[in-house]
Write a structure and sequence with these properties.
Two copies of one chain form a homodimer. Helices cover 16% and strands 50% of the residues of chain A. By secondary structure, chain A is an alpha+beta fold.
Chain lengths: 134, 134
């Protein structure tokens, strides 16, 4: 028997802080797309980097996006996932840019990813699949 | 130095056939969402299961969706991802349902996932990040 448990916000945040790679779901030319990104949690936001002019740049200009992480606990079927949904924006304020330089955050695809994108962690949900009985 | 290599269709299909868990990007109540699914490749389609009446059921009725897998090759930053974009539909034809019973495909969240969803592998793209020089 397997059952799905909803994770509370604290548990979701704990899981978000423990990972470094997630997937961002955006719309590119009216079609859905998902790409992996290296991310960091900072000041109640998901932060990741991309290259100016990329699909990710264009798709994250004040647009709604989904951000997901997941993991398995080693056993077949046992797993969890966390979903963040929010309006993306670019970090442009010099003081903020200065502050996040201290955040350890490497881009997934090379050091020319000069643009910082953030998603507020407002809508956060998570689930875990258990074996056994509730 | 890192650079991004586009993967050809054959390489994408090879990677898709070698994994069992991917992420599906859908729209739920006008908001983007991403969920992990166990999947199989069958007859040029991505197949996964869900429960009738679930968000995934409702969001995959003749709707466009993104499906993604990714992996890393152990070294920091080194990784790849494959993206399939297509119009989802449910498998309802009895002969087809009979045929896919033979496909090894366990649902991510329990055996009550009685609905089979497919995404045609028409729009398939992939990328790999390399260290070094092209």
């Amino acid at each position: 028997v397997e059952y799905l448990e909803a994770l509370d916000r604290d548990e979701c945040l704990r899981l978000l802080e423990g990972r470094g790679v997630g997937r961002i779901g955006i719309t590119v030319l009216d079609l859905p797309a998902i790409f992996p990104v290296n991310y960091a949690v900072h000041d109640n936001e998901i932060l990741f980097r991309t290259r100016g002019g990329s699909d990710l740049d264009v798709a994250t200009r004040e647009m709604m996006a989904a951000f997901e992480i997941d993991g398995t606990d080693g056993l077949y079927h046992e797993g969890w996932s966390v979903l963040v949904v929010g309006r993306c924006s670019h970090v442009t304020d010099p003081a903020e840019l200065d502050e996040i330089q201290d955040v350890r955050l490497s881009p997934w695809a090379g050091e020319d990813r000069d643009l910082y994108v953030r998603i507020p962690m407002e809508m956060v949900s998570g689930r875990r699949i258990h074996h056994g009985h509730p």
